[in-house]
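Quick one, T. Sequence first:
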Amino acid sequence: MNVEILEFTEGAKKATGVAVIIDVFRAFTTACYIYDSGAERLIATSTPEKAYDLRKSYRHSRLAGERNEKKIEGFDFGNSPTEIMKSDLQGITVIQTTTAGTNGLINAEKADILITGSLVNAGAVVKFIRALDPPHVSLVAMGYRATSSAAEDLLCAEMIKAGLAGISKNFQSEINNLRHGAGNRFFDPENIDFSPPTDFFLCTMTERFDFILKGEKRFDGNIDLVKIDL
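Structure tokens:
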């Protein structure tokens, strides 16, 4: 099994084989919590405008997403797992758009199989891919706003790569260190309304969920994120 690590939207465009689009802070962590809160369906799209259009097709739907880390005007939720955990989404279709993560999914057009990646279900991702035993895996670290490297996404990629190679390594020290680097923004009082400290801890709970989110291309170009329990 050949495993490569790519970055940003350009990396997503190059991804082949099984592509894991990684966004730890916070898109695909939030996506896991959306399903954990009872959502019936999750659709990823590229722009707020497309999200608004999709909402017209689903009677019981909510919009979740961010631009510049903040909740988009007119949306029901931002990109905060803390906010999602407080909500009952039973029977709801959630439509999600973010700066980096969801656009990575949309642009991974060369991939044979498309899944999301985050620390909260990295172990499930490894289990799923090892069962497939594909010849090639592309781990795409989407980065901060898909323009600069993000330590948390690269760390998640390294964790998945190690797991696929059967290497047992404890990454807890590196995860803890994120608080003083990439995760520092969650502890800035000015960001508490949209990036509370609890988001950091909810995003860095490894092995919290034993399911993966598999991306399935829709007729309209958007992506259904389907929950698969392992």
